[in-house]
Amino acid sequence: IQSFFNSSRSNQTLFSALNEEKVVLFLHLLGIDTNGHAHRPNSREYKENIKKVDEGVKEIASMIDNFYGNDGKTAFVLTSDHGMTDWGSHGAGHPSETLTPLIVWGAGVNYPQKVTSQFFEDNFLKEWKLENLKRLDVNQADIAPLMASLIGVPFPLNSVGTLPLEYLNNSAHFKAESMFTNAVQILEQFKVKMSHKKETTLSFLFTPFKPLSDSEQINFLKKARLYIQQQKYDEAVSLCKTLINLALEGLSYYHTYDRLFLGLSIAVSFVGWTAYVILVIIKTHTNLTKTIQANKESTVLFYSFAFVGMIIAFFLLIQTCPWTYYVYCLLPVPVWYAVVRELPLIQDLAANLLSLRIGQSMGFLLVCALGIEILVFSFFYRSTLTIGLLVFAGWPAITQLWVQAKTTALIWTLLCVLLAIFPLMPVVGREPNIPLVIATGLLTLLISCFSLMSLCNSKNKYRNNEDLKVHFYQMLSVALSTYVVSSTHDSLKNKQGLPVLNQIISWMTLVSSSVLPLLSPTFLFQRLFSILLSLMSIYLLLSTGYEALFPLVLSGLMFVWISMEQEALQHYGLSLKPKLAVFNFSYATDITQFRQLHLDDVRRAFFFVFFIVTAFFGTGNIASVNSFDPASVYCFLTVFSPFMMGGLLVLKVVIPFVLVSCAFEAVQVTTQLSSKSLFLIVLVLSDIMALHFFFLVKDYGSWLDIGTSISHYVLVMSLTIFMMLMNGLAQLLTTQRLELPRRTKHH
């Protein structure tokens, strides 16, 4: 800034530009923000930074005054775009994030007013020892008109702020006139929005915003003008404020004018699409319905639907609607045509369902609805997952499965209860706990030692030394990760930075872990355990607390789930039980005869979706980016790099998904199910959930509230695509094998 002002003395263009009227100098002091994210607001570094910026502000203010020869024509506004939580994040709706300072001084600004008492819910005035000065709170949008008024330029065209009059040191007449201008400016936005809506809506369908009809607008403006002429300035100001509030309400009204109509249109599409997918599942993957002859009257049906489509298109055309409206409104037509075409199938299905006991089918539907509601609730309240997992724990008892496999059922129940603890814990990243991460690393090593011993003891004729080497390398990798986490955090604690050796080991672990599982044998449990060890070594490096235990418990439950599904198959007499110990993934892909779907497969698909959601929300939630702790990537990098950090965070989120997907791949091949039929069931589940979230999308509140509601919807919508990608990855990880060149033995 110093050099900027100095250079203006030799640069005539810059000098004359700086000496014009109505100049805005905009300064963005970013250091505090970066510092708060890195060191948290209660740290020594942050407080020193604040002190430095404070001195800097003082220096800059005197620099500007000196440049203009202390002419007293400069107004200063100091504010901030957001606050921060104690753990260094922002974006949610907590007061520590949404309250920001606003300090205004200089030309045209009122002096602080003394008061004896004032009430605010927070303790800032007390902490800052400013209790005897009047505090004037405004909305952030109000700062734009305040700046415009101070330098004497028109209010910004699309500003929705109200001029905070208490800040201005000016006559009552000036304030009343300014307020009147502010009201006219916001009313103008309202009028533009209204005329735009009126033009694109048929006159008999248009419902105007009643409180601000044309006559009401004229009435308001006349009254306000009269008050100003009669010098009743306070009345004029309060009337203008009422008008501003009404205009803002009207703006919102016209902005969301078509919401109900479009929302219903999308809902109808959703319901039709879900019905169609259910029909496809029943038609192609089950033996519920008899083979039905093709329908003859399809031409009449086709033309009637085409006619409906044309009417809708014509209706939108005369209203000159945007092209997106055509997509929303025309989509239900082909979707419902596809459903209605299957009418004979629906009739046959209805007859079949009626022949069943009503109680049974109602019970089944009720359980389905309850399951989906639990999934929807878990997006908002993680503890709902705990309830779901406790119900899962009782599943063997409810279905009498425990009778035929007591040990497996007992371990299943135990692991469900263990996993149910995680959603009750606070979101990851608030409180680091490195000893727990180290303990998890050691526990993983202990488990892999047992696994190694059982592998050596088993009379497995397929075992060879190369496989043991791979297993050993993976154990070494886990041990190294544990060491790196421990030494990195010690080093950072002592302010010595990230040791280069640790950084190299971390990146090498990341690369090698994606290859090592492909070197292990493709026997079911060996390959899955190998995948777990590889992912654990990466996950440990990205962990800062209790979440390190999460993939371990989750994959334990996944191993038992594979065995439990075998028991379920036998229980329902669907197929013979393959020997899991010698089951090989690489031969499983050759299975050509997939069996038809059974009602129990709906439960299988539901378990999968539930475990995927648990993998996502088990240790945090979608807001975990908001509560994202940079400390979790310190083993890889300590320089602030948003994209690299974001990438590593996504990797951390994806690891539990990969574990669940690999287990589901195992369940699929061992129960002889085609992945297509299961994905169709998942599609139905995710569509029903998406319809819930569609109606829960918000457009008000904090970034976090709005962002979360949208991302929930997007997440569920992309669930099927995401699961297909995960399934592809799982197939690659489970079936592919890289052969190392073997040394030939010479005799």
Automatic annotation (TrEMBL):
Superkingdom of the organism of origin: Eukaryota
EC number: 2.-.-.-
Subcellular location: Endoplasmic reticulum membrane
SUPFAM superfamilies assigned to the protein according to its UniProt record, in alphabetical order: Alkaline phosphatase-like (SSF53649)
Claim: NAD is one of the keywords in the record: no
Pathway membership, UniProt: Glycolipid biosynthesis; glycosylphosphatidylinositol-anchor biosynthesis
Homology family: Belongs to the PIGG/PIGN/PIGO family. PIGN subfamily.
Ranges annotated as spanning the membrane: 260-279, 300-317, 323-340, 361-381, 387-403, 410-428, 434-456, 498-519, 548-564, 605-623, 643-666, 678-698, 710-733
Domain GPI ethanolamine phosphate transferase 1 C-terminal intervals: 249-702
Upper lineage: Eukaryota, Metazoa, Chordata, Craniata, Vertebrata
GO biological process: GPI anchor biosynthetic process
Enzyme class: transferase
Annotated protein name in UniProt: GPI ethanolamine phosphate transferase 1
InterPro entries: Alkaline_phosphatase_core_sf, GPI_EtnP_transferase_1, GPI_EtnP_transferase_1_C, Phosphodiest/P_Trfase
GO molecular function: mannose-ethanolamine phosphotransferase activity
Record organism: Ciccaba nigrolineata
